[in-house]
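Quick check before the chapter quiz. The format below is the same one you will see on the exam, so make sure you can read both the input and the output lines.
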Amino acid sequence: MAGEDTSSAELSAPPVRPLDRADLVRDLDSIEAALISRTASMGVERWFWGEGVCLLAAWRAAAARGAETPELVTTFTHRFLPSPPILEHVNNLAPGAAVAELYSRVPDPAIRALLEACLEWYSHAPEATRAPNGALEHWPGGVWADTVYMAGEFLLRAGNVLDRQDLVQEAVDQWLAHAELLQDSDSGLFVHGTHAGVRIDSFWGRANAWTALAGADLLALGRTAERLGEVRERLDRQLQTLAQLQPEHGVWDVLVDGQVEVRGVLETSAAAGIGAAMLRADALTAIKEATSNPTTDQASSRSALREAGERAVRGALAYVHEGTLTRVSAGTVLQLIPFGYSVIRDDRIQPWGQGLALEAIAAWRETTKSVNMPGGQQGENL
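Here is the expected output.
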């Protein structure tokens, strides 16, 4: 485009070298512990989206280690039992995913009441507007990719724990309704969102992380839901393109398709989330192939998608400093031009960065422990 402004991109610090695989394996416990400690010290107290990302990721990281429910999740949930949260926006649904997982282990009616309150908002709140194709809007007139994670993970997990297949199906249908509006038909990449019903073609990294993570979870936990084949096909196209666009150091720019105005403006939380989704999607494919053809040699070399996922995780976790994932962009509203994504601050700790780093660690544990095991059944931990 004419008049490109590269002033922000030119000031970006160069990328760092990704962690060696052996070093990551050796240091994984200490990196995770530091992330958890630093996250807890932030004060995970609001019933909002960043906190929801942290809580679900902490749950998954603990589950991948075979550990008990994280104190972060129980303390947070108990804070809201006497006085339920005020629900005003789709982002308020995000904590419900971890609360649903807690309810699966602690079937307390008071915890269930929190889930029911979120479901009531989703179904009946005047703020929960829908696009003409049924996609839940982030704001009236705007559909954002974030929603398939913030609302979708809640619907999926609440549906499973409450034995409500309709909610699981709704999570699938919402993912596909968002893909209809936001996924590029040629590349498979997702844009950030729509404005006044018009798609803005900025392929934001965290948008691709949210959609990929949610898509992989639907395949792992959607069970008997309809239209999962379409989710699988769309997710595969997205992840294959992301793998092709990935730089050698593993971390994509804030816009993943090489826009000159953001070149070198790295976004580590997106890399952590995309890497986690790649590892999980690849592992699910391996399980599916092993089930359909038990004679297949599962000890073969890692797939290209597995390699890209590992590179993204090693690249992102190289930016963890004293328990903080650095170079994480702040909360980002939809930008109308690519340059807008080059000026979002990335100089302080963000809860979603902490959460996505933990997602990467959880996915590494979930998939690495059985990557060379025929029919390894890590899917229930996804």
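If your answer matched, good. The longest strand covers residues 193-195.
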